[in-house]
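Hello,

Following up on my earlier ticket. Below are the two sequence lines again, exactly as submitted.
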Amino acid sequence: MLCDVCGKNQATVHLTEIIDEQMKELHLCEECARQKSEQMESQFGLSDLLAGMAEFAKPNKELEVADSVKCASCGLTYADFKKLGRLGCGACYNTFKKYLAPLLKRIHGSSQHFGKSPLKVTKFTKKRMDLQDLRNKLKLAIETETFEEAAKIRDQIKELEKKQAENNSQDRGAK
Amino acid sequence: MKLNDLLNHTSEWLRSTGPNSDIVISSRIRLARNLDKLPFPHRADKKQVEESLKIIEEAIVKVDYLKQATVFRLADLDSIDKQFLVERHLMSLEHAQKTNHKAIVIDDEEIVAIMINEEDHIRMQVMQSGFNLFEAWNIINRIDDCLAKELPYAFLPDWGYLTACPTNTGTGMRGSVMLHLPALVMTRQVDRVLAAIAKLNFAARGLYGEGTQATGNFFQISNQVSLGHSEDEIINNINGIIRQIIEQENQARVAIFSKNRSVLEDRVNRSLGILKSAHIISSQETIELLSMVRLGCDLGIIKDIDRRRINELFIITQPAHLQKIENKKLSSQERDVKRAELIRSRLRI
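Thanks for your patience. The regenerated structure is below:
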C-alpha cells in the first residue's frame, strides 16, 4: 500500500482520525507520519493546555504586566512560558513565583512540596524544611483526627522552634 | 557494554519474576532533575547543553551503583539503534529526536536508564519486573542521593525539584505500572475502569507511554500529581489503585473462564496456532495474538510456554529489534516475513 500523502513510499503507519464523528483512516509512510505528528503537536499540544491554565490562573488586570515579566537568568518572559508551556531555568520559578503558585495549585491541587530534598541543601533551609514538614504533618493529623499523633508533633514543633530561637540569639550574641 | 550485547539479554522488567507477574508486567519510577545554574535543555545554547552533559556524565561515573553502566552519546547512534532503545523502554521517543548534546546511560541489567538533556537535564528511571514500585523507588532514591552529592540540583523548599514543565514540579516523580488487562477488555469493562482512574488524577497510556494508543490489552497507569505528596504517599496511592485493578481483572478472568471456557480456549489456541504457523505477520497482529497466548499461560490453558518467553517476543518482534537481529535495514514487508520466522522458531517446542 502506498502512502496517502506523498503517494511514493510504502505506507507503514496507519492512523485513525475522528473529526466531527467522521472516522477517517490514513495510511502514511514514515516520513509523512512524522510530519503529521509534528503538525498535530503544534495544533494542540500539552503546551496549549498549560498555557490555557496559566491564562486562567490570574486576574485579567495583571495580564499584560505578567506577560512582560522577564527572567533575569535565562531571558524567558511570561509570554514565552505561556506559548511554550515550559520554563527556561530554575530561576524562572522565583521570577514568576506570583503567577506560578496558583498554576501549580491548579495542576497538583497543592503548592507545597512534601517529598525528599537534595542532601546539599544548607543547614538553614534544612531546619526550615523540617519545621515546615512537621507543620504539614500536624495539619494532616488534625484533619484525619489522629489527635494523639497531633499532640506529639506539636511538641516536636515547639522543641524545634525553641532551639531555633536559641540559635538565633547565640548568633546575635557572637556578633 | 556494547549496545548489541543487549540483543541476547532479557531486560529485568521482562523476566516475569516480580509480584503479580501474571497481570503486572513491570513497575517503573522516573525522577526529573535539573542543574541549578544552567538553563533547561530547550532554553540552553550549544555551549550550555554541552556543559550540562559533561557535568552530569562526570557525576554519573562517580556513583557506585552505576559502575556497570555505559554512557552512549545519542549523536553516535544510528536511527535503528535509537529506535531499538525506545522499543526496550530505555528511552523516550522525544529523546530519540534532535540528538545533539544528548546521552543515555544504561546499566548492564537494564534496570537503570538515565536520559541526559531530554526535557529536563536528568530523567532517570528504574524498572522492576512485576508489581514492585517500592523496590524501584529504593534503588532510584539511592542513585538520586549519590548524584545530589555531586550535582547542584535546582530545588526550592516550597516547590521541591524544579522542572521544565510545571506538571513535574515537586517530587519530579512519575511512578508507572504496566498492566495486561485482556479480560477487562473482553468483558468491555476497561473503559469504565480507565474513566475512574482519570477521575482520581491518574493517567492511563499505551505500551510506549505518552501519546500512544493502548495495544494488545496493555495499559500503563501513572500518577499525574507530583507536588503536595511525599514519594511514599504517591507510591501508596498508585499501589492502591493498581491493587483494585488487579482484583477486577482477576474477577473478569474467573467469570470468562467459568462461563465461556470453550470460547476462551478456542481463542487462545487459535492465536497460538497462527503465531506458530504464519509466514507473514505485522507487529500489530503479533501483539494482539501474543496477548491472548499470555492470557492462556496465566490461566493454564497453555502449559508448555512460559510467560518470560512471551514477554521477550513482545519486544524482539518490534521493527528495530528485527533489524538489529538481521543486522541490516529491512523494509516493512521484509520485517513481516522475518518476524513470522522468528516467532515460529521461538515457539517451536
